[in-house]
Amino acid sequence: MCIKLFRKCVAKCGDYFYFVFRIFVGVMFFMHGAQKLFGWFSDNGSVKLVSLMGVAGVIEVVAGLAITLGLLTRLMALISAVQMVVAYFMVHFPQGWVPLQNKGELALLYFAAFLVLLWKGAGKWNLDSKLFKKEVF
Fold first, then answer.
1. How far apart are CA 12 and CA 33, in angstroms?
2. Residue among 48, 42, 47, 83 at smallest CA distance from 62
3. What pLDDT, in 10s, does the model give residues 88-100?
4. CA-CA distance, 27 to 5, in Å (whole number)?
5. Which of these, 97, 27, 20, lies nearest to 67 by C-alpha position?
6. Which residue, 76, 103, 75, is CA-closest to 91?
7. How far apart are CA 63 and CA 53, in angstroms?
8. Cα–Cα–Cα angle for 5, 109, 73, nearest 5°?
9. pLDDT tens-digit profile of 63-121?
10. pLDDT tens string 42-67
11. Mind giving me the DSSP string for 8-35?
């Protein structure tokens, strides 16, 4: 009885859950980029725009905002997933292969989140449908 009720609730609320997921992933990714580019949310200051971290920051700000708004979500998720793979293998993997030891778990979690966004797209509520009457990519 409880399992049927749970499944019914999840099926009924799935669009809302996915919307919250997309917003959280987008906003958090944007915050990582804003930390790099503008020094927000950190005492470390900003990085040089013409650097690998600067390019990463630009991708994170643009993709984070686009994902949050539901604009070109699949394309932004693809670009961001590639960035997370590159980040993991360039920065974390050389320190060992275990993510908890090389501090790469966040890159891998973002990678998994971007795979979900790539698969599902923007979902029900997105800017693409308002601007283009359909999901673009």
1. 34
2. 83
3. 999 999 999 999 9
4. 32
5. 27
6. 103
7. 15
8. 80
9. 999 999 999 999 999 999 999 999 999 999 999 999 999 999 999 999 999 999 999 99
10. 888 888 888 999 999 999 999 999 99
11. HHHHHHHHHHHHHHHHHHHHHHHHHHHH
Q: Which residue has the higher pLDDT, 68 or 13?
A: 68
Residues 83 and 111: beta-carbon distance below 8 Å: no
* Residue 23 identity (one-letter amino acid): I
d(CA 5, CA 72): 35
- Token reading at 128: 């693409």
| Cα distances (angstroms) measured from residue 107 to each of 11, 63, 69, 82, 93 | 29, 15, 22, 11, 11
Query: Could you give the dihedral angle defined by the CA atoms of residues 38, 34, 59 and 75, in that order, rounded to the nearest 10 degrees?
Result: -150
